[in-house]
Amino acid sequence: MLQGVRVLDLSRVLAGPWAGQLLADYGADVIKVERPGAGDDTRGWGPPWWGEGDERQAAYYLCCNRGKRSIAIDIATAEGAALVRQLAAEADVVLENYKVGQLAKYGLDYAALSALNPRLVYCSVTGYGQDGPYAQAAGYDFAIQATGGLMSITGEKDGTPGSEPQKVGVAVTDLFTGMYAASAILAALIERGRTGRGRHIDAALLDVQVAMLANQASNYLVGGKTPRRMGNAHANIVPYQVFATQDGHIVLAVGNDGQFARFCALAGHAGLAQDARYATNAARVEHRAELVPQVAAWMLGRTTAQWVALLEPQSVPCAPILDLPGVFTHPQVVARGMRVAADDGTPMVAQPMRVDGQRPLAKRRPPRLDEHGPALRAALARGTHWPGDDPPGE
Questions:
Q1: Hey, what CATH topology would domain 6-211+355-381 get?
Q2: pLDDT in tens, 329-386
Q3: Which of 213, 61, 234, 64 is nearest to 145 (CA)?
Q4: CA–CA separation, 222 vs 239, rounded Å?
Q5: Catalytic pick from 40, 174, 207, 370?
């Protein structure tokens, strides 16, 4: 779908590369510019590793760089900056996540490159944005989860064992920023088709994290109360949390009054759904402290598998809590083809969208450092602004 779109990816670690990989999955030609000798920071974030010797790649790096070509360029040199400008002259998109103002020293900022190429869509990913008192501060996902409020509502509630603020198990702020950046880039490309002009996109992790607070932010802004950590419970829905069973745990996600009535009937307590204290979700939220212990006692009467077999066919939302081996052997995950391999066998997770029944997935494996550098530099030396893509794997 993005065939012919040229992306110059100057970013590293996760948020920017995630956006670049998504664009590659949709068919864009993405050239990844890396530091000579070291490359992207995540190349060293192992174990685990894939491959041996010089071919060894960190699993972290592999998760967000498929479909790209790699060239090592020292942008701090006049020659290196000139190569980047040569590529940018005919690029459609530039992705970068340098500190604010750093690329201006090399003539690679938006002002300089847009003067060279007015059609350029230039996306700057930073921790705190292009302006404001924290603009110069380094931004890392963990720190942004803290500053942006996510950790204040994640973890066991105060007074329970293990109670402390918790980060999410993956770098969700980086990932969301990559997704937001990609959608803004696509919107800017569509607009450019009408106007012929590019845009400068300011993608800040902190802004994204605040936006990601979603209903919790709305709860605070509308209700005036500060949300607190509730463990696995939901601020606005009851019962909607993890419960212990005879042999483990289960997620029970009752989202409306009809589901609650069916759940009570299946559990052998149909009358409870008629109790005015529990008949509506608003009432259940108000009487959470009385209702949840009753439900918890019921759930101990069956195994997780028994509860799933009882509730799921009757459209009462529930789920076992799977580890990663369980995820990748789950029959629906297998049927949907979420585990895939690159052209050289590198294991990867599929792009989650399907378009006309097919997943738009870049099959080229994540590149080795400077893998395509010699060919790209040779083409640039011949005066080619944007060297054509080579066959995957070459």
A1: Rossmann fold (3.40.50)
A2: 999 999 999 999 988 889 999 999 999 999 999 989 999 999 999 999 999 999 888 8
A3: 213
A4: 23
A5: 174
Whether 174 is catalytic is: yes
Distance, CA of 41 to CA of 93 (rounded, Å) = 22
Whether residue 351 contacts residue 359, with contact meaning beta carbons closer than 8 Å, is answered with yes
Q: Where along the chain do the CATH 3.40.50.10540 domains lie?
A: 6-211+355-381
Pairing of the two strands 121-126 and 29-34: unpaired
* Predicted confidence (pLDDT) at residue 394 exceeds the cutoff of 50: no
Look at residues 383, 371, 392 and name the one whose alpha carbon lies nearest to residue 40.
371
pLDDT (0 to 100) of residue 13: 96
Residue 117 predicted with pLDDT over 90: yes
Which residues belong to CATH 3.30.1540.10 in the chain?
240-321
Domain 240-321 has CATH 3.40.50.1460: no
- 133-143 mean pLDDT: 94
* DSSP designation for 109: S
